[in-house]
Amino acid sequence: MANGTVQQWIYSFATLSIIFRTEGLFVNITYVLSGVAKGAVCLDGSPPAYHHDKGFGTGVNSWLIQMEGGGWCNNISTCLSRKNTRLGSSKQMVENLAFSGILSNLPQFNPDFYNWNRVKVGYCDGSSFTGDVQAVNPITNLHFRGARVFLAVMEDLLAKGMKNAENAILSGCSAGGLTSILHCDSFKALLPMGAKVKCFSDAGYFIDVKDISGAPHIEEYFRDVVSLHGSAKNLPPVCTSRLKPDLCFFPQNVAQHVRTPLFLVNAAYDSWQIKNILAPGVADPYGFWLNCKLDILKCSSRQLEIMHGYRLLFLRALNALGPSSSRGYFINSCFAHCQTEVQETWYRADSPKLANKTIAKALGDWFYDKNPFQKIDCPYPCDKTCHNRVFDPNVHTFDIDI
């Protein structure tokens, strides 16, 4: 074997070893077969599923439930398009899922939650686990049962030890982050009276604003989601008693009424929201925003000005919640979306920081009541700790565009 080849092999092995140490925990899938009889099924009628790595040591009675993200489906066509993917069928979910970031089992990568029971719940209903329609169209065979899926998974986890929880967090990113807000109080109600229960939303604070053309695109989209999935009866009554149900899909109309302590982490220039709420394709038919949406460095001065305006609207929607000593937030000015499941943005030497704290440290201190954390970043591009997303135009990300 030539010397250069040996060196290349050693380098490759070292690289793989580093990747394995950070991403090397693979967790087997669990199917909730008992849910099927209760009608708790994915879009295609398959059983709910999750991946669970058991807690150990001092974390054996602590539970972190991470709800998967992946957008929503708002009509028959978009639901059919995801029906035969992992976002609509547990048959398409991976058998072994890599856990990292907030789900890591290593203290150097996840200092506060590494030895907890860590659960990733598969998202296969398209409604942030709020839907419940009994009828099933025999032609499409679509099942809108997200709320039943949520309950069936939680009941399965309770039977497997969560009923003895001393600490518990309901968390999630993107559509899963919205889930953690909408289901926060109902999750707490399932846990023992004496348990320390809090909720954490990563990139789930979607705001109700008009797009660049002046149209209420996201409001109309959420209206279709709520109507199709029959979500109204599963949205917080304290909101639906005052507002139209589709408006209760927006965290700004719900979060102030959540009684359980809630932590919000969000980029003020959230890349998904910029792409889909501020400048969706329907509002930009000539593609003037395409390059900007792929890479913030390619935004024109006028586009950045509009995005700064979006940030102010985001902060207004956040401030409208009013003061709360139990609520935490980490709002950085990055062009990013979902910062907790990836090691580089969750907890690493070069991870994003506010007040010199990583997201992991801020959340851990908040959960254990060591320090409150309510920090908002200065406007882009002042934060040099950001890991701004750069999208490949040929690769579709996991979180569905709308």
Describe the structure.
The chain is α/β, with parallel strands linked by helices. It has twelve helices and twelve strands. It has helices spanning 3-23, 76-83, 146-159, 175-182, 184-190, 217-229, 237-240, 271-278, 290-294, 301-319, 343-346, 359-367; strands spanning 25-31, 49-53, 62-67, 96-99, 117-121, 167-173, 196-202, 262-267, 328-332, 353-354, 357-358, 374-376. It has a ten-stranded mixed sheet, sandwiched between helices. It has a two-stranded antiparallel ribbon with strand order 10-11. It is globular, with a radius of gyration of 21 Å. The chain starts with a helix and ends in a 26-residue tail after the last strand. Residues 1-23 have low confidence and may be disordered.
What attributes does this structure have?
two-stranded antiparallel sheet, globular, 15% strand, 402 residues, alpha/beta, disordered N terminus
Low-confidence stretches: 1-23
Structural class category: alpha/beta
What kind of sheet is the major sheet?
A: 10 strands, mixed
Percent in strands: 5-15%
Summary of the model, kept short:
The protein is α/β, with parallel strands linked by helices and 402 residues long. It has helices spanning 3-23, 76-83, 146-159, 175-182, 184-190, 217-229, 237-240, 271-278, 290-294, 301-319, 343-346, 359-367; strands at 25-31, 49-53, 62-67, 96-99, 117-121, 167-173, 196-202, 262-267, 328-332, 353-354, 357-358, 374-376.
